[in-house]
Design goal:
Layout lengths: L3 E2 L4 E6 L5 E7 L9 H11 L16 E5 L1 E2 L2 E2 L4 E6 L21 H8 L15 H19 L2 E9 L2 E2 L9 H5 L8 H16 L6 E8 L13 H9 L5 E6 L10 H4 L3 E3 L5 E3 L7 E2 L2 E2 L4 E7 L9 E4 L5 E4 L10 H27 L2
Helix pairs in contact: 1-3, 1-8, 3-8, 6-8
């Protein structure tokens, strides 16, 4: 089923962009995990629209309502249902899309598959669907922190052609959240913001790259051969709206190196723990985490819905010109940061439970 994810830590998201609400049901979360709605809300606030001048002006508070699975501040081990109501939907703004396909959007493909589509904001193809993922990711984040002190942090590395130089081992949440573009390099962040503002003014949009670091992940996560850890991470983030590429560690740049240049030499630390002297593997070897930081990157395309005139066709096959209306992000990167974190947390939480089930604590 296309709206479910995970094997032991499982979720199913629901809702459409301009329907009554969106949300998630999380199944498989262990009992007695301390959890508050505020912890879920913290990540939803980082994802919500209308948070800055470079995001969509749609103004949704995105207040989480926990309907089940929590009692006296702890999880029960039963399904956790979370609802976020849509309060600022404007479906009439999308009337021009009822019979017209937006270039590079999911309008045509959804109709080709199902024979019907929700043209009000894109329905399930809208990034609003990710509300449920981020809420579930917040629960997974808490499970990882309590169980293994795992920390997951993402940030914007590149917008269009503007790229920051960032050390994944040193970046902090405070530095990421210090700018509205969520790039922890202040000077580069200002240039990114200016570039996004210029694209918005021109009725255009921009893409870029989000980088994510997962710290303190124990060695042993991953299920070869088909459920390798990097394969599951790739699958998870490539399911996000507008995502187009994934690489881990050295990524495609590693193809330009020789084996002697690329290999990570093994060593031991003061406590006798096996470590690597470098981390071109990105924390995963043979599909299994090796205890080093897991570092991966996700490429996002420019937002498909733009205000500039574009050629397209309508449902009858007639060539028409479309100038999109509605409220859209000129660049998805700032709000994609908590989405990428959420998917990484969901994958790692699932593999945490799978490792314990197969190999013990």
């Amino acid at each position: 089923m296309g709206s479910t994810f995970g094997q032991l830590f499982r979720l199913a998201t629901f809702g459409e962009s301009h329907g009554g609400g969106v949300g998630v049901v999380v199944d498989g979360c262990p009992p007695r995990l301390p959890l508050t709605v505020e912890e879920i809300q913290r990540d939803l606030d980082r994802r919500r629209p209308g948070q800055s001048t470079i995001t969509t002006p749609r103004d949704e508070p995105d207040r989480a309502e926990i309907l089940s699975g929590l009692f006296e501040g702890h999880t029960l081990g039963t399904p956790i249902a979370i609802l976020v109501r849509n309060t600022d939907a404007q479906p009439g703004a999308y009337a021009d899309f009822k019979d017209t396909y937006r270039p590079s959007h999911a309008d045509y493909t959804y109709e080709a598959k199902y024979g019907i589509r929700n043209w009000q904001g894109g329905g399930r193809a809208s990034a609003r669907e990710t509300v449920g993922r981020v809420a579930a990711g917040a629960i997974a984040r808490k499970l990882l922190a309590v169980s293994a002190q795992v920390e997951v942090l993402a940030y914007v590395r590149r917008v269009h052609t503007i790229e920051a130089t960032i050390d994944p081992s040193r970046v902090t949440l405070a530095a990421v959240e210090a700018t509205i573009v969520r790039c922890p390099d202040p000077a580069t962040a200002e240039a990114m913001i200016a570039r996004i503002d210029a694209a918005r003014s021109a009725g255009d949009s921009l893409g870029g790259v989000v980088e994510c670091v997962c710290r303190n992940v124990p060695a042993g996560f991953g299920e070869p051969v088909f459920d390798k850890l990097e394969a599951d991470l790739a699958r998870s983030v490539l399911s996000l709206p507008a995502s187009k590429g994934f690489e881990i560690g050295s990524g495609f740049a590693g193809t330009r190196l020789t084996g002697s240049e690329h290999n990570d030499p093994f060593t031991t630390d003061a406590g006798g723990r096996v470590r690597t002297a470098s981390n071109r593997s990105g924390g995963v070897q043979g599909g299994i985490s090796n205890g080093e930081d897991i570092v991966f990157r996700v490429g996002f395309k420019p937002t498909a819905t733009i205000a500039q005139a574009q050629q397209t066709v309508d449902r009858s096959g007639h060539v028409v010109t479309l100038e999109a209306r509605g409220r859209h992000d000129p660049c998805v990167l700032p709000r994609a940061v908590p989405m990428v974190e959420a998917m990484a947390c969901l994958v790692l939480a699932d593999h945490l439970l799978r490792q314990r089930a197969q190999c013990g604590p």
